Amino acid sequence: MIQVYPAASRHSFDHGWLRGSHSFSFGEYFDENNTAFGPMRVCNDDTIAPGKGFGAHPHSDMEILSIVLEGQLRHEDSLGNVMVTSFGEVQRMSAGTGVVHTEHNPSETEEVTLLQLWFAPERRGLEPSYEATRFDTNGLYGQLLPVASQDAVPGSVAKLHQDMTVYLSKLKAGESITFQQAAGRRVFVFVIDGELEVHRAAGTAETLQTRDSARIVDEPVLKLSADAGVDETFFMLIDLP
């Protein structure tokens, strides 16, 4: 089953310093029928104005992944970590027993746009930790590039404390790749830019446009194709229990 969530169906807001859309219940937005997809709790699509950001605030027992799409994001936390990341880098914070952090846009002239993802960890009470990893942006083309997973490659893929993998990919017009979904698992697809066709093994397909998402179960083979009329399609695929 492929359930499509159009971009317009998300909860969107504009606070001036912060614009964004929530794919799941978050903050002031609550829908009892849209609180999670497996261990996935949050997919926030945020744009932060120059010089603005989130003040010090706590988290616990959550895996938090930040993927910068444009601009820069500065992170500082109670563990002593200070890092500025941009496109081609991923931040992972395991809040565990508790951590306090701030996030803001260090630029005085440019916005920062990012995806922030939250996942329930494999168990509660983990030791808090943080890392920032870099991936080869050229490696996005024509394949699913893992940027975070439980079986992480040290120094190149962020290590998540959950049985899952986050992939990014860019496909040229008309290009296709295939993903095999193991029995009993879920797939979340989010189109960052472009247009993507998600084909079932039965031959039917769903079309996702920019910022659309899909939640997929019981589809053992997925063919992912970029629309022939769009130069490039950029998307995220998450394999999770």
UniProtKB/TrEMBL annotation:
Record domain Pirin N-terminal: where: 12-118
Q: Tell me the Gene3D superfamilies matching this sequence.
A: Jelly Rolls
Q: Which Pfam families does the record cross-reference, listed alphabetically?
A: Pirin, Pirin_C_2
Task: Give the top-rank taxon of the lineage listed in the UniProt record for this protein.
Answer: Bacteria
**Domain Quercetin 2,3-dioxygenase C-terminal cupin intervals:** 147-240
Q: Which family does it belong to?
A: Belongs to the pirin family.
What's the protein name? Pirin family protein
Q: Which organism is it from?
A: Paenibacillus chartarius
According to the entry, what is the taxonomic lineage of the organism?
Answer: Bacteria, Bacillati, Bacillota, Bacilli, Bacillales
